[in-house]
Amino acid sequence: MTTITVSTSSSKSVVNGIIGGLAGGVVFGIMMAMMGMLPMVSMLVRQDNAVIGFIVHMGISAFIGAVYGFVIARFPNQLSTAFLGGALNGIVWWVLGALIMMPLMLGMNDMVFVIGQAQWMSLLGHLIYGVIAGLIYYRLSPKS
Q1: Distance from CA of residue 46 to its chain's centroid?
Q2: Considering the domain boundaries, does residue 4 fall inside one?
Q3: Going by C-beta distance under 8 Å and a sequence separation of 6 or more, which residues neighbour residue 124?
Q4: 23 is a domain residue
Q5: Terminal-residue alpha carbon distance, the chain
Q6: Contact at 8 Å (CB) between 64 and 20?
Q7: pLDDT, tens digit (0-9, with 9 covering 90-100), for 33-66
Q8: In-domain check, residue 46
Q9: pLDDT (tens digit, 9 = 90+) per residue, 80-99?
Q10: I need a labelling partner for 91 at 20 to 30 A (CA). Which of 10, 28, 65, 123 fits?
C-alpha cells in the first residue's frame, strides 16, 4: 500500500512539474519568438519554421518540467526551495541544452560552450523559465 502512495505522490509531482514547465515554456517561448530563435529550435526536427520550433520547445519544456517535478519532490515544498530549485534547474538546462546539446545536435560543434550575447539572453530565458516552473509547481503542490 505504501508503494502505491509513493507512486501516486511521485506521479502528481511529475504532473505538477509538467504544468509548471509548460507555463514557463510559454513565457520563454514568447521571448524566443521575439528574438527570432524558434526556427533554430525547429531545426532539431529538420524543419525551419517558428510554429514547429514553438511546438518542439513546448515538448522540451514539458520534459524538463517533469524532471524538475520528480527531483524537487524530494525536498520540502517551500517557496524558497521552489524559487531556488527552479533557478538552478534553469541554469543546469542552459548549460546542458543551450551550451552543449543544441549546438551538437545542429552540427555546430565549434559553438559548444561558446558564450556570447545570444547565450547570455538564453541564460536569462532559462532562468525565467525555471523560476516560473518552480513557482507554479509550488502553487500546485501540497505544502510541507
Answers
A1: 21
A2: no
A3: 31
A4: yes
A5: 22
A6: no
A7: 999 999 999 999 999 999 999 999 999 999 999 9
A8: yes
A9: 999 999 999 999 999 999 99
A10: 10
